[in-house]
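Final paragraph of the annual report: two paired records, presented back to back.
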Amino acid sequence: MYIIVIAWIYVTLMMSVAEANNTNGTLLGAIVTFILYGILPTALMVYLMGAPKRNKARKAKEAAWAIQKNPEDSDSALPVEPDASGHATRVSPNCSVPPMRKEQ
């Protein structure tokens, strides 16, 4: 993936150089060309393509946190198990829930 990023930055850099060296071109036009055609789309692509890696790292961190907090109960990786049925989630027995206070 990084070879595409490097190649696109190179192409847009050459476009900017051509814009700056053209008789009708300006340095401001070259900078705008490099930012709008090079930096912004490349940053967006790198961010979107890195989403699966960030999600995997987040899940691994949550699993490590759950195992560290509760080493004897390594079956449940998260303190609260998700429920796909649309009902409220089940709280694991090892997770403490604060009691509700009555209004006075």
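The closing record of the year follows.
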Amino acid sequence: MKLAVVGATGRTGRLVVDLALAAGHTVTAVARTPDRLPPFAHGTPRIAQADVGRPGSLLEPLAGQDAVVSALGTTGRTATTVFSDGARELVSAARAGGVGHLVVMSSAGLETGHLPFAQRVVTRLVVDRLYREIHHDLARMEAVLRSSDTAWTVVRAPMLKDGPPAAAPRVSFDLPLPGAGTATRATVAAWIVRHLGVAATFRRRIAIADG
């Protein structure tokens, strides 16, 4: 499979690149600053420079790809449009380039109604205050995808951490995952690579967490 990974310099993006190379895929690592790409253990991807904030910059890297994974992130907690702007650019370039599957990362924090009362209070008082602006833009990103005709998959992860992949991660389709405390980046990356092009995940929101 021909795969492009947007946001390949991030801690999850680089894992997706390496696991996809190990699986035998032909990978294009797309980054705003390619010099920040690390060496990869399982091969050398094609490298493309692009910035989702610059309209049209994804057209060339995404042309002819079978699948695209977006691991975009932001380092601050202030108001941002990187996710929603990125989604518009991704959808446009995917449509123009004939991409068959678009996978984007989102947050389990977008839905909290299923949480126990005490946890909802903590989430509202602490987590929402810290990540409110990011969550607002992730919600806008998901709305962009829903309004498109793209075969997308949204992967909603809880708090990410480093570490090995879970042997048996818990997964839920279109519903919040009770008790989803954390997931390693390796767990998320491995699930994404295993499900590239899987039609059962198209236009679905996947909640994932370690066991």
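DSSP finds five helices and ten strands in the chain. This concludes the annual technical report; the extension proposal builds directly on these records.
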